[in-house]
Design a protein that fits this description.
mainly alpha; Growth Hormone, Chain: A; two-stranded antiparallel sheet; 23 helices; transmembrane; membrane
Length: 503
Amino acid sequence: MQYGLDSACLASLQAMPGFLRVFGYPNPNLTGGYGIDGTFQQLIGSLLTLGAFLSSIFAGAFAHFFGRKPALWLACLLTALGAAIQIGTTSWGVVYLGRLVLGVGNGFLVTFSNIYCAEAAPAHLRAVLVALFSEWVNIGSIVGAAVTNATSRFLDKSSYQIPLGIQFIVPAVLSAGLFFVPESPRYLVNKGRLDEGRKALEVLRSDSLDEEQFELEWVEMVKGIEEERKLASSVGPLDMFRGNNRSNLRRTLLCFGVIATQTESGAWFLISYTTYFLVVAGLGVDEAFKYSVMQTCLGFIGVNVGIYLMRHVVGRRSIMMIGSLTQGLCMLIVAVTATTSAGTLVARNCLIAFTSLYMFSYNAFVGAASYPVATEVVSTRLRTWTVGSAISLGYFLAWLTGFCSPYFINPENLNWGARYGYIWAGSNLACGIFFFLFLPELKGRTLEEIDELFERRVPAWKFKTTKTNISEAALKEVRNRGVGSTEPKELAEPVELIETAHK
C-alpha cells in the first residue's frame, strides 16, 4: 500500500499547480500555467527507485543475520522518515534526500513482504497471498489518486503536503501489527531453530489443518531444507550462480527475468507518468486527474480477476503469456493511433481507452503473477539473496525508465508522446517469448517440491506433469510415527492426502 500511495502521489504531483508553484516555474503556454524542470522531474521520479535498488542489494545479507520481521520494522522507520523530510522542505536538494530515504525503505518493504508471504503461505494459497501485494499496491494507488485529485485545486503547500502526509499511515499500522506476527518458519528452520520454527508454523496454520496434515507439511519443510544443506556448505550471494547441476544459476536467471518483465512491460512508465502523460497529450488538468483515478480503479479490478484466474482457472505460465500479449497490443494500438491521427479527438480517446485497458490487463496478468513466480522459483536457502537482487535489478530498470521517459515524451525533447508505445509493444513481445520458452508451471507445488524439480533438472514444459519424491517420503515418515491415529489403518495415496490438505 505504501508503494502504491507514493507512486500515485508522485505521478500526480508533477501536474499539480500547488506543487509546481513551489518547485516549478510559471509558463502560460502550458496546461495549468506552470512547467517543471526536466532534471528535477527525472530525479524525484528516479531517486526512489535508486534507493530501493540500493536497499534490495543488501536485503539478502540483512535477512540472513536478522530475519524478516526486523527488516520490515526498519522499512517502516525509513519510509516514515522519508515522507517527513519531503513534507518539511521547499528545497530541491532536501526533496532528493527524502526521495532516496523513502526509496531505501520501500525496497525493504517490497522485498520482505513478498518473501514472508511466500514462505508463510500454504502451497495452494501461495499465489493468492503473494498476489495480494498487487492488490494493496492498487488500493494504495486508489487512495493516493483520490487524495491528490481532492487537493489538486489547492494552490498552497497543502496541495502536496496532505498526500505526502498519508504515507505515515502504513508504517504506523504495520509496525504495530508485526508484534502479532511470527517470524517466517522456513527462516527459523534454516537457521537451525526448529522448536521456534514449529511454533511459528502452528501459529500460522492455527486450526486449519488436522494433526496429520500439519505434520506432513512440517516434515516436508524440514526434509527439504535438510536436503538443500547437504548440497551446499555455505549461504551467500555467489551461491545464486552456482550449485548442484547449476540449478541455482537457472533459478536465479528465471527470477531476474520475471522481475525484469515488470519494467519491460511498460508498467513503470505509466505508473510514474500517467497524469503528466495525459496532460502532455492534451487533456486538461482536471480531466487528467479524474482519468488517473479511473485507471487505478481498473487496476484494482484487474488484480482481483488475476487472483481468481490463478487460483481456479489457469497456471502462472499461462497468465504471464496472456498478459504480455494483451499489454503489447494495447501499447501498439496507442502508438499507431498517435502516428496516424495525431492531435485529433480519436487519438485522445484512444490514448485514454487503451492506457486504461493496459492498466487493467497488467494488474490482472503480469502484475498479479510476477511476484508469486519470482518468490517461489528460487530456493529456500537463497530466497532473500536472490529475490532481493532481482528486485534491485527491477528497481534499476525502473529508475532507467523513469530517467529516460521524459526525453521521449516531453515536447521540448524528442516529443514522441504516445508513439513511445512502439518501444513497449516490442518489449512485451520479447517478454512473451521468454515466458513460453523458459518459465515452468509451479501451480500447486510446495516450495520443497519446486526445489526437488530444479535439482533434477526437469525441463520447463515437464514441470506440470512430473511427480516428486519428497512428498511421498514425508508422508511415509509421518505415518511411521503414527501421528493423527492410535489405530493401524491402510495408508492413503500420497497425492490424495496432499490434495486433501491443499483443499
